[in-house]
Prior knowledge:
The protein is of the alpha/beta class and 464 residues long.
Amino acid sequence: MAAAQWAAMTASPALPPHGPDPGSVEELLAFDRDHVWHPYSSALTPQDPYLVESANGIRLRLRDRAGEPREVIDAMSSWWCAIHGYAVPELDAAAHAQLGAMSHVMFGGLTHEPAIGLARRLVDLAPEGLEHVFLADSGSVSVEVAMKMALQWHLAAGRRRTRFFTVRGGYHGDTFSPMSVTDPVGGMHSLFRGVLPEHVFAPRPPGGIDRMPDDPEFLAWERETRALFGEHAASVAAVIVEPVLQGAGGMHVYSPHALAVLHDLAREHGALVIHDEIATGFHRTGPLWAGAGRRRSDLLVDSAPDILCVGKALTGGYLSLAAVLCTSAVARGVSAGEAGGLMHGPTFMGNPLACAIASANLDLLASRDTAGEVTRIEGGLTAGLERAASLTSVADVRVLGAVGVIQLREPVRAAEVTAAALDRGVWVRPFRDLVYTMPPYVTADDELATLTAGLVDAVEDVHG
Length: 464
């Protein structure tokens, strides 16, 4: 049989140039409701999501149930990753250029310039001493890799340390190892207790970025934490923590003094330190890294970790990609073990398209006064959310870098607050007792004023 004949017989049917006819908004949403499972949702009582038609700058273009369009400011940076907003020319150009060369190639036995270039940039940006880069698929997977790395490091040295030490209130991802170091009671994964490995949880550090080490609450926390670590020190492979800001565990802000205590304990007892900067990295809390170079009193916290996880903002929200960075001591120790290397290898590891976009994203960050942008946003959030503190339903208002939080005295009526904010031109996704925002860094002052007013008004309308 001729080659042309065989190709014609086996070819897949051609799709229409722009995909199948999407039908009406109502039809799309009906199919979504019946067949598409959304994050943290039920198939029995499905969510009622909003249909996004496009995104540009810091705005989402939605379609309502009648098919009418409306534009809203994205207060969430698409779960904290779209730090430059949408349709970013520099990132679009990087994607187009890389597609012209290759979109993917396996990383086992092969390498390529996009991965090498990204690794070089990450090593240059990372806290001192982090010189080896392992590229992963997502933030949760990067935590899996970091924990595996710590375990292998101890095993290679003949130490069977199998537990991790962390603080309550944390969140590290939804796959099994990250779930095991996420708060076992107040977190989203209490359902899996008894199945997950049991690790060691110290109390949550007292709140407040400026909390001093001689504060009575801090001293009590430190005493309890040191005693707990001492009880389990022989079995602890590493401390794992979200530095200074706990994200999905409740947007809890705590003092870098607490981070210093955790570092001291790890160093004293021969454990490693893992910083999960998936949510906090790349200036979200102000500095490039939340856990290194932040001032405590008049001193700088010496808190560079042994292992660092980064993700979310790494590609500017374009593609899923994460990275694990570690010291040479950790890399050599793992590699000297019986396995001869780190036992992990994702299919899409080092994806060239994602790496090229990530490098362009980091170049864009470096070309701007990103720290200055975040300082400006911090000021706008502080001023704009201040009025919420006077509402009877509000327990606390706090701002750190480009993170603004309104904490309620009761669980948030999320669907109602979301709808009320949308009526004011703002997209927000509250959870637990929190109405919060992590806006793109490029949000202008007038847009920030609209955003904060929309959140405060929505809380007042729904909760009083």
